[in-house]
């Protein structure tokens, strides 16, 4: 109640201030970027809290009326004209060089801060400002393609958003059939791994006794989930997604459940890209489930491999012979997995290649190629199993040749696995996955001998 009161009070003050602003300015809502930037300069120069709040709201409203070209001009001006105050920075540098001290170091730190950071902070004071800035950053990301000069602006926005959206501010909430419809609609809209077709499909994922869905929320975006995870409770580790999503499946009694399967994790806010919540989400959901269901033994994912087929087709270092390369061309046939002989031949080639893809293949910068693998391995999970034909949907066949994988979150090993990957680049993998890699080694030896 108190938060709502102060929010309403702030909105009232802001609206009255905006009325005064409009009396002294143009009544045309279609402002160009130059007028918007003048208002930004006035916002930075002002000291009054109430007038600043109103002005911040006006800046955000006028930004909405800019077209793509106007928004590009706006961001380019932030990059060019809203960096550090060069004179203050020069003075601070000279003072530090003359006689370094903690006070001088602090002065140097604050003098080096770009003016656009303070502008963003002041815009955040407007009612609804946080949500507006997240949306503004989504625009910035779209405009950055081909405009590398905007990278400095993005770094400053990310720096501030990372502070405002740190784990301490996030609230974990369970999503179920009693959750308000406007939130459930967003779960349907933003599901990025396995499409939710309709309301009945959604209900099958969140309402049965063996299903869970959790999301992180932020106090300033109370009705907008930032990221959510869908969980299936099962008796054993699954090898395919279709049985988990089947319409006519029989729910697993919770007293028999021994495994929690994280089968879909989706971000909802494009403007928060690069600000990671997923690792915190999984770890907190594990704790929630352990409190509710202490008999759970395994916490695993059933994950897609979205970069696998692209790697097979485009990488120059895929370890295959000419005959195997010709065999892989059959993956372009949509029904290849329905032919037993062909499927057996492809499995003998693709499973070892999948092990190589995870354990050996790297980007030019030395990173794991697969984004999902980077996420889970970086969180301290172990690559537990490669699941042949785990996803035979059109998307699964197109992106991963039907392969899925299980990443195992063993709580006692998470920190050790994370440190090994972060410091030495070592990937925690089960003996079954390593055996597939050894099989590939023998296959390559046979290729060379023949």
What does this structure look like?
With 450 residues, the chain is α+β, with helices and mostly antiparallel strands. It folds into 3 domains: 2-164, Malonyl-CoA decarboxylase, oligemerization domain (Butyryl-CoA Dehydrogenase, subunit A, domain 3, Up-down Bundle), CATH 1.20.140.90; 168-301, Aminopeptidase; 304-449, 3-Layer(aba) Sandwich (Aminopeptidase). The chain has 20 helices and 8 strands. Strands 1-2-3-4-5 form a 5-stranded mixed sheet, with helices on both faces. A 3-stranded antiparallel sheet has the order 6-8-7. α1 packs across α3. The chain is globular, with a radius of gyration of 26 Å.
- Unreliable stretches (pLDDT < 50, length at least 5) are 23-30
So, the CATH homologous superfamily of the largest domain? Malonyl-CoA decarboxylase, oligemerization domain
Query: Can you tell me the CATH architecture of the largest domain?
Result: Up-down Bundle
CATH topology of the largest domain: Butyryl-CoA Dehydrogenase, subunit A, domain 3
Largest sheet: 5 strands, mixed
H/E element order: HHHHHHHHHEHHEEHEHEEHHHHEHEHH
CATH class of the largest domain: Mainly Alpha
Count of extended strands: 8
| Number of helical regions | 20
Distance between the termini: 77 Å
- For the biggest β-sheet, the strand order reads 1-2-3-4-5
- Average per-residue pLDDT, rounded, comes to 90
Shape: globular
Sheet/helix structural class? alpha+beta
Radius of gyration: 26 Å
What's the domain count? 3
Percent range for β-strand residues: 5-15%
Helix fraction?
Answer: 40-55%
């Amino acid at each position: 109640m108190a938060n709502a009161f102060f929010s309403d009070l702030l909105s009232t003050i802001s609206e009255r201030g905006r009325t005064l602003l409009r009396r002294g300015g143009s009544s045309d809502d279609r402002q160009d970027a130059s007028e918007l930037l003048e208002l930004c300069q006035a916002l930075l120069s002002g000291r009054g809290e109430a007038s600043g709040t109103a002005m911040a709201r006006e800046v955000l409203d006028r930004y909405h009326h800019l077209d793509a070209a106007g928004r590009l001009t706006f961001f380019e001006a932030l990059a060019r004209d809203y960096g550090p105050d060069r004179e203050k920075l020069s003075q601070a540098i000279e003072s530090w060089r003359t006689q370094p001290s903690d006070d001088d170091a602090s002065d140097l730190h604050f003098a080096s801060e770009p003016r656009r950071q303070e502008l963003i902070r002041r815009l955040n004071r407007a009612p609804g400002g946080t949500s507006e800035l997240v949306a503004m950053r989504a625009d910035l990301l779209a405009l950055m393609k081909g405009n590398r000069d905007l990278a400095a602006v993005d770094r400053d926005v990310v720096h501030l958003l990372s502070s405002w959206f740190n784990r301490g501010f996030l609230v974990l909430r369970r999503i179920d059939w009693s959750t308000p419809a406007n939130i459930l609609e967003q779960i349907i809209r933003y599901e990025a791994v396995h499409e939710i077709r309709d309301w009945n499909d959604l209900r099958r994922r969140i309402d049965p006794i063996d299903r869970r869905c959790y999301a992180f929320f932020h106090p300033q975006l109370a009705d907008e989930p930032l990221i959510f995870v869908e969980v299936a409770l099962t008796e054993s580790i699954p090898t395919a997604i279709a049985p988990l999503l089947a319409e006519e499946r029989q729910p697993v009694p919770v007293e028999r459940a021994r495994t929690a399967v994280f089968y879909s994790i989706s971000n909802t806010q494009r403007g928060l890209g690069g600000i990671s919540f997923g690792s915190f989400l999984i770890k907190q959901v594990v704790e929630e489930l352990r409190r509710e269901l202490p008999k759970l033994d395994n916490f695993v994912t059933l994950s897609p491999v979205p970069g696998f087929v692209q790697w097979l087709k485009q990488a120059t270092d895929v370890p295959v012979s000419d005959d195997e390369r010709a065999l892989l061309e059959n993956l372009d046939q949509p029904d290849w997995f329905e032919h037993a002989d062909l499927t057996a031949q492809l499995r003998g080639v693709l499973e070892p290649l999948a092990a190589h893809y995870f354990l050996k293949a790297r980007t030019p910068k030395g990173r794991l190629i697969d984004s999902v693998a980077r996420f889970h391995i970086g969180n301290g999970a172990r690559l537990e199993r490669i699941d042949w034909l785990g996803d035979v949907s059109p998307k699964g066949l197109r992106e991963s040749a039907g392969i899925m994988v299980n990443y195992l979150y063993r709580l006692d090993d998470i920190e050790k696995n994370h440190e090994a990957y972060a410091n030495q680049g070592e990937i925690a993998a089960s003996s079954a996955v390593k055996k597939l890699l050894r099989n590939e080694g023998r296959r390559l030896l046979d290729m060379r001998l023949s």
